[in-house]
Amino acid sequence: MTQFPPINSSRKLPVLFLIFTFLLAMTAACQLPGLSHGKINVTIQVNGSERQATLEAGSTVADALSQLGITPDKLDKSTPPMYTVLTDGDRVEYIHVEEVFKTEEVVIPYEQQFVRNESLPEGETRLIQSGSNGLEEITYRIVSENGEEVSKSIVKTIILVESIPEILMVGAQSSFAPIPIPGTIAYLAGGNAWLMTGTTANRRIIVSSGDLDGRIFSLSYDRKWLLFSRKSTKSPDQEINTLWVINIANEFTKPQDLKAPNVVHFADFKPGNNTEIYYSTVEPRAQAPGWQANNDLQKVIFGLGWVGDHKKILDPNSGGVYGWWGTNFAWSQNGRLAYTRPDGFGIVDIDGGYLKPLLEITPLQTQSDWAWIPGLTWGADEQSIYFVSHAPPSNLINQEVSPNFDLCATLLANNTTITMSEQTGMFAYPAASALRLGGKENYYQVAYLQAIFPIQSETSRYRLFVMDRDGSDRRVIFPPDDTPGMEPQRPVWAPDPIDGQNGDFMAVTYQGNLWLIDSGSGQSFQITGDGLISRIDWK
What we know:
This protein is mainly β. Among the domains are: 39-95, Ubiquitin-like (UB roll) (Roll); 99-161, Resuscitation-promoting factor rpfb (Resuscitation-promoting factor rpfb fold), CATH 2.20.230.10. The termini are far apart.
């Protein structure tokens, strides 16, 4: 083993001193920067003035502010930051930040809108709707630093009152030649009701409030009254619309409120009684589609300046499969009433107050917030009912999602149903003409829509077809093949033939305009060009 020589006692003292000096130097070197014993002096700038503070070494900015009696708010800030350890001679800038929320009410100026209408003479202007300003509540977030605003931003806006645009109807010269018409055509254009009588050039406005919603729009059979629905002034979840009539024989009368709110599917005059109206109601709902159907039937009798009591014909009921959507109804020319709903159709016994089912139909599973109701019309001789049926699928898929729809007819004498035309689409909307005398036999025609893409008939456009009552002589008459198809709608037949023409006329809307089509020749006549028309009736 190696032996080291012993340390001489005279050398021990210098060695220990050296070790102690080395350890002291190392300890001093390992201390954190800025930490030292004693006091430090710093300058703190607060609101533009400078204040001095004497602190223990190792203090932070927050400690310095606390010594001056300053308690920072959560938004306050400093330079350097609050957690910084200070050294002698440092300067600190303290910034007091304030956040204020301020609410102001701001006027929303109303807009002015111009509607071109060929029913008015060229250059004439008519006020359709008076404008009114709205009111908006705006909440701002305002941030200030040391009393000076540095930012202002919008955090919330609430419309207290909706602005109502001023609508002016401006007359425009029609470029379409007038043609004579039997009876009266009523049409809905831009939320207003108009009439044509005798000729398509003889037009006058009868309701100019601009708030007709188009759900109900029907002439009485004596052409003295117009039945229509108006948007409610209440919120949609409280009231959807209201039902009104106006006497069109006297141009100075005002609309009469029938006191029948929430009429979505059906309201119409009873044939043979021009002051008796039947209607069905719904209950408003906040969720889609915006209502829960009552599937009821009520009637009201009215006269010029008065409205009678409302009588219940059918009690509210579930309405069958998908009954939440509702039930529709259709009058025959002699006052018989049919009903149609998502799972079938039948006859209403008005005196007994009950339904007599005729045929069940497989309901369509739309997988959405709407339900399909089969289109239905009475034959003019009241011996048959034409309707759209939900046909079975071509494979083994669920029948309720089948894309196939056929036009069928039920013969009431023996309750036999036959298919008149296959793959018409779900919105075929058949409509029968008036009964005509031809030789020894009375006859009539049936118009219907044919989907251009039958398998996608929910979104497809359609073309107008006409056939004889037995399905023979089927032909497309409008619009031409090289033009876009029609939106789904029910064609409206003329009450009488037009002199000098081959067949009965129909009125339809196409691209927002009124067209008349001769069912015999297929010749079509465009009547308007302003693109505003949404509903038609012809009596």
